[in-house]
Design goal:
Radius of gyration: 25 Å
Structural class: mainly beta
Number of strands: 39
CATH architecture of the domain at 146-281: 7 Propeller
CATH class of the domain at 146-281: Mainly Beta
Length: 439
């Protein structure tokens, strides 16, 4: 019996020694990664190996160039939220240091962080369209040419870009291109097995991709969700959902907005328990706000008027605007503190108009774009870091002229000046930033 006690005692002693060594180890920064910003312009998640002294982290954190920020959290998990007063023009140098609750110092680390998203576009080249990024004031190809690009969608976590391409009629394909943090291609994968008649895409902040499509081999349409895990898309999961229009994933994940004949429904996704809430009325989802739970809805009235509504958790939709003009696109900042509408008014001489509203529905700014035409299907995309709106427009032409090629336009939301990005494009979007490098 005593012979068994000796190795047991040695084992317990070794375990106690290892435990003491682990307790004596200094804290480490385990993870630093970009996260969706919400109300802020940009955000990072910090995770440490031990519970930290929040006061020492806040006191010793350095951000250059200086910019207003908040460091929220407790224990081992914190979030750095950035609130710049002006547009961000370059990368930040971030230094993280402090101590844990025992008073043991954290090894200082420095990082180069550029929170600005990358402008992506589908551009016409020989043989079809090509996905390119606008980097260092020039367009750079990041994908092969596969025919016409009918839709382009940056994944919500910045991991890559999805596209619907077609080299011949009624034979569309869905491709996903995964990208490194510096924007360089890593892997390309085709998601569909059979040619598609049509496909609509939606992504959330986890990088999951929803594909709503139909084929000539199967009646009706099908909805498939491809989840991104460890930089690999898992086998698509087919969802038993019927919709009267395009389905949208909720940015924060786990839910989707489904247009139905009786209204809009909010439905949960597996593995959550099935739950469905319906907002009745003739409404379309126009755009999501960065702050969770907020969205802009377009309501259609029997007298052909349209209204824009702000939807917030636990509240009835709040009407911000009502009119007879065609409401083409919307965007919002934060939780709806700033809302933008792109309108088209007039019959003989249609004219684009951009309006900024506050959360109470009061007009803050009105800009006419008399010499511009919106490219069909283009949306408004807001970048809180640069404080600009992105949309695809072309110079207005008369009935006897060949339509001018569309170009990406950046509208400064502080003074409403317009910058035209050189070179034509057929689709545009912002790729969320993952540009974070240890220095």
């Amino acid at each position: 019996m005593k012979k068994w006690l000796i190795p047991l005692g040695i084992g317990l002693g070794v375990a106690a020694l290892l435990q003491q060594l682990l307790l004596d180890r200094p804290p480490r920064l385990v993870a630093l990664e970009p996260i969706p910003p919400g109300r802020s312009a940009a955000a990072l998640r910090l995770r440490f190996s031990r519970p930290m002294d929040a006061g020492s982290l806040r006191k010793n954190l350095q951000l250059k160039p200086s910019s207003p920020y908040q460091l929220l959290g407790k224990g081992s998990n914190f979030s750095l939220l950035l609130y710049p007063k002006s547009a961000i023009s370059g990368a930040f140098q971030l230094q993280i240091k402090g101590q844990d609750r025992r008073g043991v110092k954290l090894k200082s680390s420095s990082w180069l962080w550029d929170p600005r998203p990358t402008l992506l576009a589908a551009r016409s080249v020989v043989g079809g369209d090509q996905i390119q990024r606008f980097h260092n004031n020039k367009w750079q190809p990041i994908a092969p040419v596969r025919g016409t690009i009918q839709a382009l969608l940056p994944l919500g976590n910045g991991a890559g870009v999805a596209s619907v391409t077609s080299s011949k009629p009624m034979a569309s394909q869905v491709w996903v291109l995964l990208l490194a943090g510096d924007g360089k291609p890593i892997l390309e994968k085709q998601l569909n097995k059979n040619p598609l008649i049509f496909a609509a895409l939606s992504s959330d902040e986890k990088g999951d991709l929803l594909v709503q499509s139909s084929t000539s081999l199967e009646p009706g349409s099908k909805v498939e969700l491809s989840r991104l895990k460890n930089w690999q898309f898992q086998e698509p999961q087919q969802l038993a959902i019927e919709a009267s229009g395009p389905i949208q994933l909720v940015p924060q994940g786990h839910q989707l907005v489904v247009p139905e004949f009786e209204g809009l429904s909010l439905q949960t996704l597996p593995p959550l328990a099935a739950k469905k809430e319906i907002l009745p009325g003739s409404r379309d989802l126009s755009s999501f706000c960065p702050q969770p739970g907020r969205a802009l809805l377009v309501r259609h009235w029997p007298d052909y008027r349209r209204s824009l509504e702000l939807l917030e958790p636990g509240l009835a939709p709040k009407q911000l605007w009502l009119g007879t003009e065609a409401l083409l696109a919307t965007a919002c900042a934060g939780g709806g503190e700033r809302v933008w509408l792109l309108l088209l008014s007039g019959i003989r001489k249609p004219q684009l108009e951009l309006i900024e509203l506050n959360k109470q529905g009061k007009t803050v700014w009105r800009v006419f774009l008399p010499d511009k035409e919106l490219d069909p299907g283009s949306k408004l995309h807001y970048d809180a870091t640069r404080q600009v709106l992105l949309l695809l427009m072309r110079q207005k032409s008369n009935n006897y002229q060949q339509p001018a090629p569309a170009k990406a336009h950046l509208i400064n939301t502080n003074n409403y000046s317009i910058e035209v990005i050189p070179g034509s494009a057929t689709q545009v979007g912002w790729l969320p930033s993952r540009k974070l490098k240890k220095i």
